[in-house]
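Following up on my earlier thread - several people asked me to post the actual chain instead of describing it. Fair enough. Here it is, all 106 residues.
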Amino acid sequence: MKLLGKVAAAVVFIAGAVLFTSSRITAHEGNEHVRGVVTAISATSIAVETAPKTTKTLTVTAKTVFTKSGKPAKLDDVKVGDRVVIDVPEHTTEAKLVQFGAPAKP
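Reply from S.P.:
Thanks for posting it. Predicted structure:
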């Protein structure tokens, strides 16, 4: 019975470690990844509906980089309904990199 308790404790520890690690993978280099569907676009912002049905409005600046299917793009190429992944520096709402379209082929 003691062995079963140790195994259970080890499983809980490993599961916790995996969850912690996977959450850190989605945010690297001090950036948060905002993933979802574009619901609105303006000259200065993009609104994205994320998985938990919340909307995040992110600021677009002259420094924001856009890529469509792995190739350079511009704000005008983004359309309402596009699925996007946007890199946002932690503790800001400024879009650093907006990726959309099909993944680039190797």
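The first strand starts at residue 31 and ends at 41. That should answer part of your original question.
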